[in-house]
Amino acid sequence: MEVLIKQTLLSSDMAKCDCITVHEQVVVPDPLPVVESVVVPDPVVAQEKVVVPVEVQEPPAFVSDPLWPDMNQCPGNEIWVLVTSELGSDSKVTPANVQITTQSYYIDWGDGSEVKKYQGDPPELHYYDNDKCENVDSLGRKFWLLRVFDTQFDSGLFVVGLFGDNNREHFNGVKYVVFGNELSYYFWGQISCINLEAIKYLSGGKREINKYPYFTNNRSARNVKQIIIPDDITVKYIPGYNYYTQITHFGISFDGIAFESTQSLLGSPMLKGKYDFSKSQMPPVNIGLQYFASGGEQIEELILPQASYEGTSLQYAANNCRLLKRFVLPTSCRQVNTIYGICANCELLDEIVIPEDLGVDCEEGVDAGYAFIACSSFMGEIRLPNTRFRRFTFNNNITCCGLKNIVISDKSPFDLTYDNAHFLLRNTALGHDNFVKLFERLPDFTGDTQRVINLTGSIGVEELTEAEIKIATDKNWQVIGV
Predict the structure, then answer these.
(1) What pairing do the DSSP bridges indicate for beta strands 381-384 and 389-395?
(2) Whether the model pTM is above 0.90
(3) Helix, strand, coil percent values for the chain (each to nearest 5)
(4) CA dihedral sign of residues 26, 32, 38, 39
(5) Please, what's the b/e burial string for 310-322 (b: 16 or more CB within 10 A of its CB; e: otherwise)?
(6) Which pLDDT tens digit goes with each residue over 203-250?
(7) Residue 63 to residue 119: CA distance in whole angstroms
(8) What are the residue ranges spanned by the domains of the chain?
(9) Among 130, 159, 158, CA closest to 144
(10) What is the pLDDT of residues 158-206, one digit of tens each?
(11) In angstroms, how far is CA 358 from the centroid of its own chain?
(12) Could you tell me the end-to-end alpha-carbon distance of the chain, in angstroms, rounded to an integer?
């Protein structure tokens, strides 16, 4: 059974997630004879157009330069990599580094150097002589078309940005990566991918990619604007740690998708609109749902997988989602022992759906400290009569608004505090009658350490009589704010 906590229904459908996605798999055909020379067509005006909804035009969408080769012409069994020089006219060389792990492949670097066969390990590093390049785009950058072909398989792992050490930031000239429609490689961006702006999979071949593009660290993905995956490609896994990306949407179906990780999965402040994971696979216990959307400041609706959640934590699952209006938890959360910070700073939260069995199998109780901080638009109820809380925090930081009622287990241990209170209900809208009922349900700690309940700024506290307050104090509660 679910508990529906809500003020008003959403007035309009949330913006649909229209994002770009990549998955982890590499396709490599049987090796072919070494090619001595490869003719690359002269640059032509690109025909590629990417439609991006107006509401997600920030940052500006990636657009191919009109003087680059048309990357849509990439053959089905090749990978095309556009390399540009961003170092200025004084720089003599532009480095580029690519790798297909555990496989053999051929590379035409696109500058007249030898085309030869490479093995999967170690990665291949190449330096382009800027002075010898005759290709100049409309922005005055030198550019080269790097071709990877004759790979051993049609799926696997394609890696960019592998030179340098983790303690330094190295430039890599790779700007744009396009996979042919017969390949299912997943993309892994490592340190030095600072020039990369776009990854694209060409449509026309129904296939599965193992994983959405993954980046080793924040710096390597800081300039990525688009990851394009067509509808005829299925993404199997999606990784977390997307807080670094400028990508405003994923553009893939989440139905049936599995999670390689969930930490900050929707953590980018650029992500907008509705994210419906209701039909996604529930992550295993060792991955969990904690920090799932932490930092997703422009997310308006979030639906977590609708199945039984066996994990123990929902900590910070949606904190700092300042535009979040509707939040739906899994249908069952019996093992959850912490929702610490779960909706902190969700300033527009109007509806939250919590399963009635939240934490019922946790002998020690559920930690709800810092759980509902600055939820200044919430005017619903929280009814969890079977959930034993160790502490509970609802603090709007705004006078007289928020929570209309709360019902929790009268066997709650309240053995933890937040802001010097075990039960913090500051600036709520419970009203006189609900506060009296709450006092009547408070656990009795007579003969135990005194507990503290803080009602400062809440509607109805000024109407409480001494006799009504005594209901709580007789149970060894200190009542603050009356």
Answers:
(1) unpaired
(2) no
(3) 5, 30, 65
(4) negative
(5) bbbbbbbbbbbbb
(6) 998 999 999 998 876 667 778 888 999 999 999 999 887 655 656 567
(7) 33
(8) 18-250
(9) 130
(10) 999 887 665 666 789 999 999 999 999 999 998 888 899 999 999 998 9
(11) 24
(12) 35
